[in-house]
Amino acid sequence: MPQIYQEVSETRAWGLWKIEESEETLRHLTSEIAPQEIKHPEKRLEYLAVRALIKKLLLVWGANFKGLTKNEHGKPFLKNLNFHVSLSHSFPYVTAILDKEKTVGIDLEHSKAKLLKIGPRMLHSGEYEDAGKDITKLCVYWCAKETMLKVYGKKDLIFAENLLVEPFILKEKGNFVGRIIVNNQTTTIPLHYRLFKDFAIVYNL
After folding, report:
1. Same domain, 114 and 199
2. Which of 33, 63, 72, 97 could form a disulfide with 106 if both were Cys (CB 3.0 to 4.6 A apart)?
């Protein structure tokens, strides 16, 4: 079974899918074809797998998947429904979240040593001090900021200045708090993280 995790409530659904299928199988599951401009084989699989996941989540609500579209900022929307949607992928995993009422963001990232290099650019000084050299915690911080950026819906924010995360104690999963600061206005974003073997997922609550 390719889907390895799923949570569904009356108003929200999210899931995680590990890609083990061929492109042909995923085309059959989604009735879609990856665009020709997507050349890399793994990216083509991610494109199809995340749509297969969204289709499966919608079916739990008795809704049909008719495809995705994006606005000028790259924010995804369901073509036939008013549900909010966010997605993320880092091969071989894809994840997606749907909400009937509120804007959502989700991000999946692998814990990689490169985070030690980009951490000082990505994090505010207090965040970097909290994370230290803990690659897993750096990964959660990164996911949190990507998630908040998706909730905000535009790409003109600076991670270390406009997207801030309060320090937290790292566990297998937990809730924490982020803040989007734009034009001296602060929006508090409750967040949740989950740790898996070599990657993390964060979404807004």
Report:
1. yes
2. 97
Which residues make Cβ contacts (< 8 Å) with residue 9, sequence separation at least 6?
Answer: none
How does pLDDT run across 40-87, given as a tens digit for each residue? Answer: 999 999 999 999 999 999 999 999 999 999 999 999 999 989 999 999
What's 26's DSSP letter? Answer: H
Tokens of 174: 């937990």
Q: How many domains does the chain have?
A: 2
User: What is the rounded CA–CA span in Å between residue 130 and residue 46?
Assistant: 33
Residue 18 structure tokens: 């590990």
Output DSSP code: residue 128: H
The answer to whether residues 73 and 40 belong to one domain is yes
CA distance 178 to 11: 22
Q: Is residue 106 within 8 Å of residue 202, measured between CB atoms?
A: yes
Express each pLDDT in 168-196 by its tens digit: 999 999 999 999 999 999 999 999 999 99
Strands of the chain, DSSP E: 3-8, 12-18, 68-70, 76-78, 84-90, 93-99, 106-110, 163-165, 173-182, 185-195, 199-204
